[in-house]
Prior knowledge:
Helices cover 28% and strands 20% of the residues. The protein is of the alpha/beta class. The protein has 2 domains: 2-309, Alpha-Beta Barrel (TIM Barrel), CATH 3.20.20; 329-403, Golgi alpha-mannosidase II (Immunoglobulin-like, Sandwich). The strands form 3 sheets. Strands 5-4-3-2-1-8-7-6 form an 8-stranded parallel sheet. Strands 9-10-15-12 form a 4-stranded antiparallel sheet. Helix 4 (63-72) packs across helix 11. The chain is elongated, with a radius of gyration of 23 Å. Bound molecules: alpha-D-glucopyranose (GLC). Alpha-D-glucopyranose is lined by residues 25, 36-37, 175, 223, 238, 247.
Amino acid sequence: MENALLSYEERMRWFHQARFGIFIHWGLYSILGRGEWVMKVEHIPAEEYAEMAKQFNPSKFDARNWMSLIKESGAKYVVLTTRHHDGFCLYDSKVSDFTSVKTAARRDFVAEYVGAARDAGLKVGFYYSWLDWRFPGYYDHKAQPDSAKAMVDQAGEQIRELMTNYGKIDILWYDGHWVPGLAEEELADFWHSREVNAMVRSLQPHILINNRCGLTEDIDTPEQHVTASQPGRGWESCMTMGDACGWGYIHNNPNFKTSTQLIQYLVTAASTEGNFLLNIGPKPDGTIREEEAERLKAIGKWVKVNGESVFGSRRYPFEVSPWGVGMIGTGTAKEDNVYIHVFRWPQQGEICIPGFSKKIISAIILGTGQTVTVELASNGRTFLKALPAVPPDKHDTVIKLVIAD
Ligand code: GLC
């Protein structure tokens, strides 16, 4: 019971330290390669969709391969879709036959995932969708109250199973709590999420719960954009690597963001005390596509050199201009260090930071160790000079300033 006394700040500590997580959308829908909404968007009848479970036998799935790549990306935690809106569970459930354990694969992928993530030293998150498209009561809970009740009861039971059968779980990442005809403030009553979350916290006292349950809980979840919450409140931006319309595997997904963009999203979140949850959608055979693997590795290389500027970062504390540190990029802060993140390397070999009131003891380029000359000028300007002509890091060069407090 000792854990139950942990304060919000204490429970959130590791999350702020972590800053970077990987989201994994993988399930039956991966077979079709048209995203995780395919059943709904293409009006596939539930019985027809369920037939796909006979083919879902991902011969190349090895959770250890996923986790070693995720480790290499520098991420500190991982969140897997244990069950998406289609209702197909990647784990064993007593209250459903529509699971990977009772169909072709005969495997509990959630158990394999948890084991591998723990072995890799990653914190473990479960994504779980409240809604289940297979229930007619989801679409019209007033006309079909029994079906709606069965769906609600199933969610409560399955959440209990997930919180009971897999050891310590660090994040419960809810989704799909919206219900046709109900307003946001009615959703907690509909899903009984107050009672469910009390049960979750009694089983997993340290757990972090996101806000997609009709209640505020611990973490805000901006989707496909990086937008900070109020200071003191935990938040995490989730984002797809490819087109925003799909999180599960999309076979031809032509608009992958560059590694540079992804690194800069991570840094932008870290500059206002937020996390970045970057999604991958593995293939139906359980392997991770090249475009995703490549980006995870590139981010990892950057993190290896510059990670100290994001892990455990605080908000960049200087109100300097509408653009943070001016037009060149942004800043993060930690202890007595300020990190200037240069996204747009200047031509002139110098950077101006306006409004920087602290005394700088030293300035170096993190990646190369090169010392940077600091000069103060009129109007509260600080110049960083004698910079190389070519940016030392093409994604984001970090200049570390040690400041006197
Ligand atoms: C949305 C979508 C869902 C996706 C999620 C990720 O709510 O319904 O498919 O899993 O966003 O945040």
